[in-house]
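#structure-requests
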Amino acid sequence: MSRRRTQKKRSVMPDPVYDSRLVELIVRQIMRKGKKSLAYKIMYETMTQIAETTQQDPLVVIEQAIRNATPLVEVKARRVGGSTYQVPLEVLPERGTALAIRWILAACRVKSGRPMTTKLTSELLEASKNAGSAIRKRDEVHKMAEANKAFAKYRF
């Protein structure tokens, strides 16, 4: 990491079909080994499946799922005087969104036996209803932060 200046934040261009930055962020996380066209195919099939099952705009469902899975606080290890403390910190909105997307996709990848589109569809629908593995992970992180609230004085 450079010590000279902070890196300029790059803006993400929206995806071509839905014109949404959130969809583009999800596509970039789905992508493996540079296969972006395959990632787009998975995402767009997922969105059509969501539209068919819920009879709603898939963008609204996805935004709700990401909002529900976004953590408000997280713990970070901080070393003070030879011992390590788990210090609770507030999560910035961009990092929270990135964590939510990562957790939803990790929950999809753990499941086996079905195509990625159906796994992603089910996980997004569960997250939009405040259920599923990503929501469980968020609650786990919140509990950890609550348990270590006493070490908030070591915040940096």
